[in-house]
Amino acid sequence: MVDELRQYTFTADAWEQYWALFTSLCMPIRGDDFGRLKGLWYDRIGDTVTFRHLWRYESLDARAHLRAELIKVDDWREKFLPQAAQHVSQQFLQVLVPKLEEEGAGLAAARYLHSYRCATGKAGGVVQQIAGVTGTARKHLCGLWATEFPNPNQVVAMTSTDEAPVLTLAAAVAIETRRLQPLVLGQPPSDFRA
Fold first, then answer.
1. DSSP 8-state secondary structure symbol assigned to residue 72
2. Is 143 in the same domain as 167?
């Protein structure tokens, strides 16, 4: 099983237009037929909005097959993509390997994204340490992934609190934390400020 975390950056005005397209065209066209949607989030800093959505696939081959099938859909290719592309400032995606079974509210409770940039060969140890957290830290852990690409030396965790799971590794690890605002299809995003 693999997850794909897609990230798009917009100006605030372009974001409003893109979200309308995403809810009215993208999701009705693709639904869960071309990957299973696991979550939607955004954050806003000043006039810059970052939108993230996570899709689950049975495998990399299944992802490639479903993406190839999606591009064959006329409404996707001729209606959604041309309109959506004009609003996106930047696009970035990561293929992630889930390392933690979702418990409780799972990704619905995720409010923070922590990216651990690890020294070469150290990501496995970071995954092991985070997966082994207990007590309150475990309750706040919503998801954990090893990055397949673009950077195999990165680990991604989502939590319900701003505290990144604590590490005791001596190896150099840089942690970047971003606040997430969950999105619900059919509802306008609130005026969220990070």
1. T
2. yes
Dihedral of CA 53/55/60/63: which sign? negative
Please tell me which residue, 142 or 192, carries the higher pLDDT value: 142
Query: Is 132 in the same domain as 104?
Result: yes
Q: Which residue has the tokens 């970047």?
A: 176
**pLDDT tens readout for residues 110-133:** 999 999 999 999 999 999 989 888
Task: Provide the whole-model pTM.
Answer: 0.90
Name the residue range of residue 158's domain.
Answer: 97-181
At 133, list the tokens.
Answer: 């957290």
On whether both 91 and 136 belong to a single domain, the answer is no
Half-sphere exposure of 70 (CA within 13 A, CB side): 20
User: Which two tokens mark 8?
Assistant: 């798009």
Residues whose CB is less than 8 angstroms from the CB of residue 129 and which lie 6 or more positions away in sequence, other chains included: 165, 167, 168, 169
How far apart, in whole angstroms, are the C-alpha atoms of residue 40 and residue 187? 12
| Local structure of 169: helix, strand or coil | coil
Report the CATH number at residue 77.
Answer: 3.30.70.100
Residue indicated by tokens 């299809």: 185
- 51 and 16 share one domain: yes
CATH classification at residue 113: 3.30.70
pLDDT digits (tens, 9 = 90+) for 149-179: 999 999 999 999 888 777 766 566 888 999 9
The whole-angstrom separation of Cα 147 and Cα 105 is 23
CA 172/CA 180 separation, integer angstroms: 25
